[in-house]
Amino acid sequence: MIRKNVVLNNEIGLHARPAALFVQTASKFSSNVYIELDGKKVNGKSIIGVMSLGAFHGEEITLIVNGEDEKEAMEELSRLIEHGLKDL
Length: 88
Description:
It is a single chain. The model has no long low-confidence stretch (mean pLDDT 93). The protein starts with a strand and ends in a 6-residue tail after the last helix. The protein is globular. Strands 1-4-2-3 form a four-stranded antiparallel β-sheet. The chain is α+β, with helices and mostly antiparallel strands. The protein is 34% helix and 26% strand. It contains three helices and four strands, in the order βαββαβα.
């Protein structure tokens, strides 16, 4: 299991399109992906879960990835967030 804190750099946080892009990317991996914010932990492959966090620009979230491709998943997901949730 890998944990990493990352700061949301996009203007609107994890809402609508950015959340969908995150979920789409997370779903490419077999590992379990979770996002944690203010003590709330959600499935990173669930659009409803990700949007329910209400994460805004500048907030620090924790990515938690566990599974056989966890290193690759963490690398790609954290890079996606650090680059403002733009399709890389």
